[in-house]
Write the structure tokens for this entry.
Amino acid sequence: MAEEVIFPRVDMDMTEGTIAQWYVRNGEPVRKGQIVFEIETDKATMEIEATADGILQGSDGKTGTVVPVGQVVAWILQPGESIPSDGVPAASVIEGGT
């Protein structure tokens, strides 16, 4: 089953943060607990781990992208699986991005 990779809330006052770096690219395998991407907030930098084994898909791969908390930024899929057609699109750029 497709697993959402969601931009997490790491502080009670947090409404958005920045994707600082992707460690896994679309199409690459990922293991549960492996670091997938790094986020920056006003208060901290934090590495975000995969919540399941599978293949990363749906990431825009951009760094510097400001993302709202709770936004789906990618999916972890099983072989032969695709992103759900009713799935939330990968991270929308609010500002910045490269």
Observations:
- The CA atoms of residues 12 and 35 lie 23 Å apart.
- DSSP finds no helices and eight strands in the chain.
